[in-house]
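Contributing new complexes? Match this layout with uridine-5'-diphosphate.
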Amino acid sequence: MSVLLTGGTGFVGSHTAVELINAGYDVVIADNLSNSSADVVDRIGRITGVVPPLYVIDVADKTALNKLFDERSIDAVIHFAGYKAVGESVARPLMYYRNNLDTALSLLETMEEHGTRIFVFSSSATVYGDPETVPIDESSPAGSCSNPYGRTKYFVEKILSDAAAADPDLSVVLLRYFNPIGAHESGLIGELPSGIPNNLMACITQAAAGILEQLSIYGADYPTPDGTGVRDYIHVSDLAAGHVAALRYAQDHKGCEAVNLGAGRGFSVLEVVRAFEETTGVHVPRRFAPRRAGDIAMCYAGTEKALKVLGWRAEKSLEDMCRDAWRWQRNCGPGTDP
Ligand code: UDP
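Output block (do not edit by hand):
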């Protein structure tokens, strides 16, 4: 079975390519390399023994997409390609709406023309906004997102569920990610933020490596046990395995399902920093800073549906995530010359 990964050279896409190839799927990647590099496909090859074909195209470009679908017989699509920086989405909302909606629409139209009826979407827990209660399960209200990036995820979810309602042959799975961190245990693929990172683990590893002067801990006065923000961190390889499970599910079911991909427990910023220091033996220089605009106090996933519907759950520990993120940073991460 042949699966197209849009954004397949990115952080989650590349790890999903590895898990799919290891599970016996044929993977084709489409990526415009706007936030990743072409050598990722060789690294996927070094891990799996298979270098997936890479189409350097813009997924919003229907002519280019059509050519790809004409050349390859695509049975399913997993759609990762999209802009994902929250702050940038606030500053340039139209760019986010244009790109993130156009890519999804072009894909859906091209799939319809070529009879491809399985669509797995890289969505986000950000669609839940600031939750009233935790854990957050899939029946929690979605749509009150605090920024344009989150709204693009929510709008694409709606487009997909409307498309599935209108077409009884379409199978859609909306995967709502919590906080993917870590890297492949080989140290060959991982997160490569361009410029100053936003995400916690990238900031921790760069502070530990001396690239950032120190980690800023945004807020020590949240209503959480130690005052710092609590999130559901999930190892990116676990998350990638969740996509394989979603694809298997979509092969046997029609309609549209939203499923959380999280580990189901929350860790505070300070707990993550301490786990990193204990696992790696490396000190993380840090300071407390004011809360970051738009951040919420606490968020972690209800995971029952993922287990019941997909037969999947996260396996790896916070220590695994810290160890693998640090190995990646030292081997190939920002500031290294791999
Ligand atoms: N965070 C932090 N310092 C950083 C980056 C993040 O204290 O340099 C905190 C942030 O306030 C939140 C948590 O780490 O409580 C996770 O933030 P991240 O940006 O990784 O993910 P989010 O859940 O906000 O999408």
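Reviewers usually confirm one structural detail per submission. For this one: The chain has a mean pLDDT of 96.
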